[in-house]
Structure formats: structure tokens, C-alpha cells
Amino acid sequence: xxxxxxxxxxxxxxxxxxxxxxxxxxxxxxxxxxxxxxxxxxxxxxxxxxxxxxxxxxxxxxxxxxxxxxxxxxxxxxxxxxxxxxxxxxxxxxxxxxxxxxxxxxxxxxxxxxxxxxxxxxxxxxxxxxxxxxxxxxxxxxxxxxxxxxxxxxxxxxxxxxxxxxxxxxxxxxxxxxxxxxxxxxxxxxxxxxxxxxxxxxxxxxxxxxxxxxxxxxxxxxxxxxxxxxxxxxxxxxxxxxxxxxxxxxxxxxxxxxxxxxxxxxxxxxxxxxxxxxxxxxxxxxxxxxxxxxxxxxxxxxxxxxxxxxxxxxxxxxxxxxxxxxxxxxxxxxxxxxxxxxxxxxxxxxxxxxxxxxxxxxxxxxxxxxxxxxxxxxxxxxxxxxxxxxxxxxxxxxxxxxxxxxxxxxxxxxxxxxxxxxxxxxxxxxxxxxxxxxxxxxxxxxxxxxxxxxxxxxxxxxxxxxxxxxxxxxxxxxxxxxxxxxxxxxxxxxxxxxxxxxxxxxxxxxxxxxxxxxxxxxxxxxxxxxxxxxxxxxxxxxxxxxxxxxxxxxxxxxxxxxxxxxxxxxxxxxxxxxxxxxxxxxxxxxxxxxxxxxxxxxxxxxxxxxxxxxxxxxxxxxxxxxxxxxxxxxxxxxxxxxxxxxxxxxxxxxxxxxxxxxxxxxxxxxxxxxxxxxxxxxxxxxxxxxxxxxxxxxxxxxxxxxxxxxxxxxxxxxxxxxxxxxxxxxxxxxxxxxxxxxxxxxxxxxxxxxxxxxxxxxxxxxxxxx
Length: 770
Ligand SMILES: Nc1ncnc2c1ncn2[C@@H]1O[C@H](COP(=O)(O)OP(=O)(O)OP(=O)(O)O)[C@@H](O)[C@H]1O
Prior knowledge:
18 helices
């Protein structure tokens, strides 16, 4: 942890100077650290005042930044001086009579620079000559902690102090490993009291309880809303605020988080922003609680996310949903791990590590289309306002995508396909004719099932996966370049329950530039199975690892040949290659985009979004937008085509797409090192199918240190944007927003800079106090 370098200020900076005696028994009474004292003002209840033993005398000097303590008697060597940085104090008090006239300082110096070493509470009490003197000092220190402007001429008294801050504390008792209430008692409430903060604490009783509460309460009564939980509860609070008719003022109320969840991404970002080393559990909690007590609020971007409708009710078709997100949108690997690792909840944050290993062992890829609006483009509004001059499109495409453009498209590997990578060998090369053949072939039930059987036959048992996990390159890397699919067609998403609907028809241009799934008119009817999505509502779920480590209930991923067509060839020379046509390339939505060769075209109606039913009735409860919701001026409605200029589109098979707007994806996952709370950007990371398991694992390991951007892999890309649209083309998958499941289907998002306010402590710029 960083701690300010102590320095001896010039005497001119002194605000107060006075003499104090030690308080407590014994000759070392003034070094009275009481880390285990109960809460309240340092455990200094008047009745419990120990016998005074003024064995030592001290000279205290208060400056704007420090309290200098000099022992006057008995004079000893090096212990005689102490410098207390005000930046490490959470509060100060002068206990009322009949307690002696004490100046009590609540000091939380940071732990040593070692992972996991927590800040420790040290209570220091000094006996003043008189009560008014003790009160004057207490008022002076509190003025400095609360940011009241003072000088050496200030007459310090309590009247200078702003009223105590009032916080609404919302606790999810089941978050993380269910320790939130315990930590409230042992860590949070004592520190909050020492900071002279008033509070009301409410335990949530069910999912969406906080959201409903926040929609109703009178906000002016509170200076801030603090979540004592994981990121999910803050998601509820943000959306509760945005669903109020007075959302414009409501969303400006400072929000804070005290991490008691499993992931604690925002807390990790706050901890990092304050300059502290990465830490977890109680050390992280103490850091965040300390920063909260210090005050300090910074603007925070919110991202407006429009998701597909949930299941229709009573025959009425549902409409797209809008919600507000402070953390992330994830599709593929990351959301899978998030949701599937619910079963390991008892492990705390280790659940994600285990979930990652399990998912890497059975790696899946998902077909989809990702479009984004790069930040460098000063865009026009989708309602037709003429665009200002902009940078050449080709530049915005290639930025951050060099490796991406160079990479040839490969067949994607099956998650079980270590031994069975040749599962499709009989079907390749998958050129135009083969694509046609495939189109015809998969129209029949027989072919479909046969292919599925072939795939299964060629799948590796899990023991082989374990043995070969880190030895085998991914399928795409092994493939013979000659046999690479120049234009793949998704022919292998053969789960027998393929389902497409057409609530969001694409415009002709988009349709025509896209090879459709041949299953559009599949004879297989969709059997709506209640997915386990969104059903993580019955928390807590104390599930043991042993019970679930072998759970393999997830549907097997079947390999697919993917296709991405670029209507315009890659414009960057770096993308030029003999295999250019087989590259998975970013696709500018230029008006002049040409359709792919008719040979590859399928009927215009054959491309659709796939919307699988979501079973989450609780999480996806109807939500009420305010009358005048903030407008997504960069985005057309979800069922309309994107603007034809400025946007970049990438289509193909993805292992993951992650949109992050905080620096951390979990307290120990520094996934977007460049992100700032209010940078007005969405940081996109996407990983293409074809990446080897070992590389993916390396990526996540590097993410812990935030060094993954230097990991060179043609399958991994990092770009920033201000808006994006994600269109999953695989029938199954999970989409999460802030770690919460949302209906699977097309989704789009736009950043709204500095919309909310986050309590982050005093470090950083643009800090205001709450
Ligand atoms: N009393 C409650 N009972 C059950 N669920 C609750 C309750 N209070 C809140 N929830 C829901 O629990 C879910 C998880 O909460 P939260 O995200 O805060 O904890 P977590 O999942 O342990 O942490 P993280 O998101 O950091 O991994 C949220 O969707 C929230 O809405």
C-alpha cells in the first residue's frame, strides 16, 4: 500500500500546538494502540476510563496534513517522535464528561507492502489540560478531515463542523460466503462510528428488495447509499435510482460499496484507484471502508444497456429492456464462468478460479456479431444529424486490431475435440460448394443427427481433456492451411433444439452481407426448456465442491464452421494476405459495402437474431422506465440497423466478448488497466475461437497483474468504444450485465459519461466531498 511520505512541515503551517499527557496505565500509556477495542469512540466509554497515569508528556502540533507528536518526558531515543498523517485517520473524538478530557484519534495505518496484509486500527488518546482544549483539538482535526477550510487564525469549535453524514447501508446477508453481517459488526460499523457517520442499516430480504426500496425512499435524507455486498446489489440500487421519476437528481446521490461478495469488481477498482496493492477479503473491505469514511466522491460513467425482451407474458409480446450498468457486459466464457460457478459459491472468490479451469477444460465458442463505435470518431446522432469530419475509417478499424487482422480464420475447436479435431474433416474444405451441400444436408433431420453422432464419436472423454489440456494446440492452429475454410458456414450447431425467431429483422444490407444459418427452416422444433439461467435466485446455495466438481450438466459444445464475410476487403495493408477472404475481419458498415458473392448468399430472410427463452422470472421482473429516460443518442433502436458510418463490425466465432468500464472484473482481475471511473469509454476485450487453452489460461493469469495487454495473441483484441451492439448467433449462451443474467439475444449499450457518483476516498482528481 502506498502511504504518503512523512515530511516535517515548516512551523508556519502549524494550526494548533499544545501539550498533552499520556492516558492509560503504565509508562507506555501514550502508545495506546487498542486494535481489539470494541466499537464506539475507541471503546472509551466514560465508565470504563482507566486510572490516569500521566507518566509521559507530549507536545502535539497540528498542520494541514499531519499531527506531529513529540514526547517531552521521559525523553528517550528514537521512539520520541511520531508523525500521524491525517490521511490515515478516519476520525477523532472528545468523549463527553464524565470521561477525562481526551483527544482520541482513530488511526488506520496501512499494512506492510505484502499481499493481504490489512490496515490495523490503532487508537491513540491524549489527555488535554482542559475539556475546552480537548474539544478545540477534536474540532480542528475533524474540520481538516471533513475538508473545512481553516487557517492558523481559525477559532476552532464544533460549530465549524458540517453535520454528520447520514448513510443508508444496504446489506445482502447472503452475498459472498454469507459473512456480510458478521463483518458489519466486526469491521464496518466500528469504523463508521469512529468517522462520526450516522447510518441506517437494512438487510435485504430477497432479490430486488433493494431496488424496490430505492425507488420509494426519500433521498434528500441521505448523503449516500452504501452497498455491503457484491456488485449485484449495487446493480439493483443503480437501476432502482434510474427507475425513479426524479432519476436525474436521484442518480447523483453518492453510492459506495463495501465488498462482501465473491467477485467485488468495483471494490477492486476503488482499491486500485486509491493506489493500494491488490487484496481480497478483509484487507479489501478495510481499505474500502477506510476510503468511505474519508469521503471523497468522483463521477462514474454508467452504461445504458438495451437487452432483448424476456419471454412474453399472456400472449403479449415483450419489448426490449433497458437497464443501467456500472461494471460490465459479458458474453461467452466470462458470463459462463460467472453463472456456472454459482455452484461453488461456498469457495468465495476462488469459485471463479475453479470455474475458469472447468470452463477452459471444456472450451466453447459462440457465433456472433460484434459492432462498436470507436471513441475517436466524433459521431453523428442516429437521427440523421450530419456527421462532423472524422478520421479515416480504415485507421479506426486497424487500431488495436493488428493481430486480429493478421490472424487467419480457423475452424473452431470443439470443447471436447482434443482428440476429435478431425470431426469435421470429412466435411472440409468447406468452400462454396461444400457450404451449399451443407445447406442442403442439414435441412434433413437424418443428416443432422448423423453429424451429431459423428461429433460425439470424435469427442474426447474428459480424462483425455485433462491429460492434453496444456499440450494440445487449438484446433484452428492445427488445421492444415490448405484445408482452411475460406468461407465457413455454421453447419454444426447441432443441438436439435435450434430455434430462431424474427422479432428484429435486419435491414437488407445487413442480411445480404451475412451468411445465414442453414437451420433457419430446420424441421426441428424448438422445445422450450427451462434453462437454469437466472435461477440463481435461491441464495444462499451452500454447495460443496465435492458435490459439484464433477457436475457435467452443461450441454456439450459442438464444433461449428464459422463464417465471417467482409463486404469490403480489409482496408489496412496489414490485413492483406493470400487468405484475406478467409480472415475474420472487422467490417466497416460503410454505405458502399458490397454484398458477398451471390454464391454465398442465402435467402434474405434467413438471417435472424436468435432469442432463446430465458427462464428468469424473478431477476427479469418487469421494470419501469421513467417518463423521460436518458436517450441513447449513439444508438438506433435495437430492431433498427446501425448507422452506416463509423461503426466497426466483426463477425465470427468468439470465445468471449467482455465489455468492461471499471479497471477490475473481480477484485483480483485487473482486466481493463486503462479504465477510469469517468473516462467515457467502454473497454472491449474479445477472444476469437481458435485460441489454445494454454493461451487463454495465460491471458487470465496475466489479467491478475493487469499485464494481459502485452500478451501477444492474434486471437485476443482490446479496443475501446462508446457504444456497441452484440448479436449472438448461437442459440445457446449466457449474457450477463454486471454479473447478472439478462435475456439471451441481441443487446446494445452506450456509455453515459459521469452519470453517477461514486465514493472513492480522497485520492484522485475531480474529488468532491459528500
Ligand atoms: N436477501 C437476499 N436474498 C437472496 N438474494 C439476494 C438478497 N439480497 C440481494 N440478493 C441478490 O443476490 C444477488 C447476488 O448478490 P451480490 O452480487 O451482491 O453478491 P455476490 O454474487 O456474492 O457478489 P459478486 O457479485 O461480487 O460476485 C444479487 O442478484 C442480488 O439481487
